[in-house]
Design a protein that fits this description.
Blueprint lengths: L2 H8 L2 H22 L4 H26 L1
């Protein structure tokens, strides 16, 4: 996926809904995978989870306006 593809996804309402669903699925996978990790791997996975969650929250807030 190119950088421009993400911008195209974010500017299309239908694609935003699909993007939200994909992010929610990614959040679940990342969070579940963190259980089996330790140390830096667990820390980095949880930081990824936090970043994805913040992105999803920002997209949902933007869509309400």
């Amino acid at each position: 996926m190119e950088d421009g593809d993400i911008i195209k996804i974010i500017t299309s309402t239908t694609k935003i809904e699909i993007f939200e669903e994909t992010l929610e699925e990614m959040l679940l996978i990342v969070f579940e995978s963190s259980d089996s990790l330790t140390g830096d791997f667990k820390h980095n996975t949880l930081m990824t989870y936090r970043t994805l969650r913040e992105l999803l929250t920002a997209i949902k807030k933007r869509n309400k306006h």
